[in-house]
Amino acid sequence: MAINSMTGFAREAGTTASVNWAWEVRSVNGRGLEVRTRVPPGFDSAAEDARRQIAAAFSRGQCQLNLTLSKSATAPRVRVNREALDTLVGAIADLKLPAEIRPASLDGLLSIRGIVEMEDDAGDPAAEDALRADLSAAAARMVKALSTSRAAEGAALQAVIEGHLQAIGELVDAAETCPARRPEAIQARLTEQVETLLAATGSLDPVRLHQEAALLATRADIREEIDRLRAHVAAARELLGADGPVGRKLDFLAQEFGREANTLCSKANDVSLSRIGLELKAVVDQFREQVQNVE
Questions:
Q1: Cα(136)–Cα(138) distance, integer angstroms
Q2: Would you give the DSSP letter of residue 285?
Q3: Residue 136 neighbours by CB under 8 Å, 6+ apart
Q4: What does the pLDDT look like over 237-246, one tens digit per residue?
Q5: DSSP 150-189
Q6: What are the pLDDT digits (tens) for 155-188?
Q7: In which region does residue 27 sit, left (phi positive, over 0), alpha (psi from -120 to 50) or beta (all else)?
């Protein structure tokens, strides 16, 4: 399975009768699922329907959902009020007009208010029902397109995260095989430090000094940190192949990576090991930044 990102965009547009409409949704990362809507007055039910579809498809992310409506540029329908026209024609026929007055022409009759009516879909229940049905179907397509967009973003994100895990694993191997961790190297550094102290004071208890040196060597051991870092890498790779949202668990692992990297740096007793630790912290920070976008 591939992970999904919380980042995506989708748009669905169309025309129903004389109304142009367009759905748009943008999603970014978030701790949970939050859907904010902006729709024209009277379309709250359409927004709620789209919100329910988004909630059924996703578990995390901040989504901004917008609906825009406008009248189409198509010409309105023209209807001749035949009843009114017939009544008017009949009334004119009953009139006895002077010879100098010409009979009414058709264009003159049609210009009278109420004879020709311009119709649109405003207030038409059937048109409103058709519009709401189209908006609901378009919302479903939009949610599916958003899911596809987030999945594509997730595939690219997974490649980046896997690269970070690879780098972390290589740095852990480098820390484990660092020459500064070899017993003879540790012993040489401690011996040098002890000889320096003895030369400066000449009054240190050799037995107590040996005990302190052993304690320092134990505290500087990073075996546990290396083992835990390797376990975290394995857990992260397992999550990347798991089904369902894994962003929260990856975020928790990122915190654990950071904790172990900090401890490794604090225990480093050599410049070469410190450099490895600092590079490890940098990669862990990059890993943490990327997993913030995983659903």
A1: 5
A2: H
A3: 46, 49, 50
A4: 999 999 889 9
A5: HHHHHHHHHHHHHHHHHHHHHHHHHHHT-GGGSHHHHHHH
A6: 999 999 999 999 999 999 999 888 766 656 666 6
A7: beta
DSSP 230-273: HHHHHHHHHHHTSSS--HHHHHHHHHHHHHHHHHHHHH--SHHH
pLDDT digits over 259-288, tens only?
A: 999 999 888 877 888 899 999 999 999 999
Helix H segments across the chain? Answer: 44-57, 82-93, 106-110, 125-176, 183-201, 206-219, 223-240, 247-267, 271-291
Residues 141, 281: contact at Cβ < 8 Å?
Answer: no
User: Token pair for residue 275?
Assistant: 């450099």
Instruction: Report CA-CA distances (Å) from 207 to 154, 211, 213, 219.
Output: 60, 6, 10, 19
